[in-house]
Amino acid sequence: MKKLWATLQTYLPGHKPKLNERRRMVRLACRVMVEVRTQKRTFSAGITDISVAGVRLESKEGLSAKEIVAVMVPGSGKGAVKCRVVWTRRLSVERMSAGLIFEDTDEAKANSWVKETLAAHGFSQNNVRERRQHLRIKANNLPAYITNRSDDVLCEGALINIGRGGAQLSSTTEVRIGTKCRVRLDQYGALPSMAVDAIVRSCRRDTRSQKYYHGLRFEVEDDPSVLRIVAILKA
């Protein structure tokens, strides 16, 4: 993790990348509940995508461009990260979206939830700017399972996102980090079934939903069954 963070530091705001560099930075779809603190209030929000430069939030509460806020993951034991609001957009009468960039010190980011979230969603030490074909895409909470290698079910849950090299799955049951397992999908409409060997790289419990969010790395990249699922979800 230390090597990963050292690599990420080059791309964080302390390095002050140019605007066109920021636009090229990879955004990864995710679902992480956070707490946002402003000077006058505190409210809950959900991260819908993350990059090494910042995050996109959705919430019932509104923010203002250029506003400085602190963002943290409740119950994670990790520190908050100072962010600056770059843009805001109304999604509906009761829903707002906002783009934030990280503005905190490298030390604060290293001790925060940012590093773990990036690692759990596919950023590697050797290629921080993953090519677009490596990105995970939203899987619309498809019913999914984590089993052991003998196909005994360890947990049932919902597939949050999936890519060539891994996936994220939520469940009310915890599967411990380091577990060698298999990710299974039954045939669902036009989607074929899938069974791919994987290892649990991260597991985070959301205190509000009481669900565990598992970051899974596939043992074989570009498995044909995974590529079929990704291609259909992209269509």
Describe this structure in words.
With 235 residues, the chain is of the alpha+beta class. The chain has 2 domains: 2-120, Thrombin, subunit H; 136-234, predicted glycosyltransferase like domains (Thrombin, subunit H, Beta Barrel), CATH 2.40.10. 16% of the residues lie in helices and 44% in strands. It is built from 5 helices and 12 strands. The strands form 2 sheets. Strands 1-2-3-6-5-4 form a 6-stranded antiparallel beta barrel. It has a 6-stranded antiparallel β-barrel with strand order 7-8-9-12-11-10. A hairpin with a 5-residue loop joins β7 (137-147) and β8 (153-162). The longest helix has 11 residues, at 224-234. The radius of gyration is 18 Å and the shape is globular. Residues 1-24 and 125-133 have low confidence and may be disordered.
Largest sheet: 6 strands, antiparallel, barrel
Give the class from helix and strand content and strand pairing.
Answer: alpha+beta
Along the chain, the helix and strand elements come as HHEEEEEEHHEEEEEEH
- Domain count: the total is 2
Number of helical segments?
A: 5
Helix fraction, binned, reads: 10-25%
Instruction: Give the low-pLDDT segments.
Output: 1-24, 125-133
CATH class of the largest domain: Mainly Beta
Q: Which strand-content bin applies to the residues?
A: 35-45%
Q: Which architecture name of the largest domain does CATH use?
A: Beta Barrel
What integer value in Å does the Rg equal?
18 Å
Looking at CATH, the homologous superfamily of the largest domain is predicted glycosyltransferase like domains
Shape: globular
Mean pLDDT comes to 82
- Largest beta sheet: strand ordering: 1-2-3-6-5-4
